[in-house]
Amino acid sequence: MGVITYIKRLAIANALTLYYTAAIIFYMLVTYLKNPFRNPWANKQRLVPPARLSDPKYGVHKYIKVNNVKLHYVENGDPSKPLMVFLHGFPEFWYSWRYQLLEFKKDYWCIAVDMRGYGDSERPEGVSSYNIQTMAEDIRDLLRQLGREKFILISHDWGGIIATRFRDNYPETLQALVVLSSTAHEAWLDAIWNDDEQRKLSWYVFLYRMRVIPELMIQMNNLEMLDKVMIFEGKPSVDSEDLECYKYWFGKQYALTPPINYYKAAFDYIDVELKRHDENVPFLFAHGTNELYLGKKIMETMKKLYKTIETTKVQDSGHFMQQEDPEKVNRLIRTFLQKQNL
Questions:
Q1: Could you confirm whether 157 is annotated as catalytic?
Q2: Catalytic residue status for 263
Q3: Per-residue pLDDT tens digits for 162-182
Q4: Quick check: is 6 catalytic?
Q5: Within 157-283, where are the H helices?
Q6: What is the DSSP string of 36-81?
Q7: What is the mean pLDDT of the chain?
Q8: Which of 248, 262, 319, 325 is catalytic?
Q9: pLDDT tens, position by position, 144-168
């Protein structure tokens, strides 16, 4: 990449970061002036975990040290069955896979992880702790600690970015890969710089480059942003009790900075190599037709990146499809795995 292109992208990124930061500060100011006697950041204290988080039907809560970080996970199913690991996205944690834990526990050993920096997992300090390569190594070490050589990996959003990097590094360990509402890191960066639609859809990525302001935005009005994010075309993907589960964790002090560091660590200005991957790893890649954060060109780029890939559009489903349309998504995953005799 030439120096001029680098400088141009740096200028664009900084300009967009400043623009979206100014817009959010203005929104905060307006919110405050509407009711100057109320503190928008005086949120409800949630000292006791919502009952749903400890419901035994979802599985047993456990901890494991991998790659020098303690991770929390929920385990369900029979350890003698094939291993199925679930990686969540933002702003989520293991709970986003509750429907899948119930669906697949009869046939698989299911492990839904709180990735580093989320939920009850350890929160290392610093942006560099959330490098994609490092988090792929978390999963590799998790596999070792669980005593398995191969497994099925199910992922969503940020979990999908980490899962595709893991697939690129360790294809021999994967029996199958499912990526929902996500993409590969290389495809994401390529789209941000070369696709106007994706750059607009990724406005929050530029905002998240700023310090403090993103956390304040999300924390406002009792984490009202979570209420808005989990609605798609007027169709809720969670109910009020589910939202309390999310707000219990994201309402904690310092709970938002690590997830936002994922974005900071992944952002770059360079031209990434769209390397072709010819390994024969069964790969299901799905987006919803109501997807709000990923552009239409992403799927075509993924087809170019991976020789073995099955792509599909889930009708009338939004970004958080595994929660919004669990029956549809569960059927999609099960049909795909049956084709692989898994």
A1: yes
A2: yes
A3: 999 999 999 999 999 999 999
A4: no
A5: 158-169, 185-194, 196-201, 203-207, 213-229, 240-250, 257-266
A6: TTS-TT-PPP--S--GGGG-GGG-EEEEEEETTEEEEEEEEE-TTS
A7: 95
A8: 319
A9: 999 999 999 999 999 999 999 999 9
